[in-house]
Specification:
By secondary structure, this protein is of the alpha+beta class. The chain contains six helices and seven strands; from the N terminus they run αααβαβαβαββββ.
Length: about 200
């Protein structure tokens, strides 16, 4: 029988107003976060000479290893047969056509997930948005690395990343369309997708 401390399940921050502010109160000035800074940073150039690669399977393992090095807890690769579900929601005809062409122009999506103790969708404070910032860092650096290899890589903010993560075999979708994984349960945040033409082996 395992010994269990009586206070082990208690949230140490439950009655801390400063922690609640840190997690749940959105910043009055967005420049106090790095989210806007990274999202507005322009993508770099693609190196004009493509690097010599191994097989798609080995290249996929290299991509996953790099993502783990940058801080991703889970990484999957989805084949982009068409626009992922939900990516065109709310788009006008011209915008939808452009996104459809963009998705069809890239064969793969690299999906990275990080641990999230708080749901970033409902926790707008600086602390609550930490998984978003971590995910932005990972996708920014990983996409830059792919471009340095001579291949296209663009971070797509409005793709349905939870659906793509499920397609890549990272977990399954619950009733709300959120990703649930065996490793992290529902405490997971799926970062923006990286669309790329780097030759990879898809998961799922």
């Amino acid at each position: 029988m395992a010994f269990k401390l009586p206070w082990s399940d208690k949230d140490p921050h439950r009655d801390d107003p400063y922690w609640d502010f840190f997690i749940n109160t959105p910043p009055a000035d967005l420049t106090n976060t790095v989210t806007k800074l990274i999202r507005n940073a322009p993508a770099g150039n693609i190196f004009p000479t493509k690097a010599e690669l191994h097989s798609p399977e080995i290249t996929a393992n290299h991509v996953k290893g790099m993502a783990q090095y940058f801080g991703a807890k889970m990484i999957g690769i989805a084949k982009l047969d068409d626009v992922p579900p939900g990516a065109l929601a709310g788009a006008g005809k011209g915008e939808a056509k452009a996104k459809n062409n963009q998705a069809n122009d890239f064969p793969f999506a690299v999906i990275c997930a990080v641990q999230a103790d708080y749901d970033a969708r409902t926790s707008p404070g600086i602390g609550g948005q930490t998984p978003v910032q971590n995910g932005l860092f990972i996708t920014f650096v990983l996409s830059a690395w792919i471009r340095e290899l001579g291949y296209r890589a663009t971070v797509v903010r409005d793709a349905d990343t939870d659906a793509l993560a499920a397609k890549a075999g990272l977990g399954s979708l619950n009733g709300q369309g959120r990703l649930v994984t065996a490793q992290l349960g529902a405490k997971v945040y799926v970062a923006d997708a990286i669309y790329t033409d780097l030759p990879l082996a898809a998961d799922g």
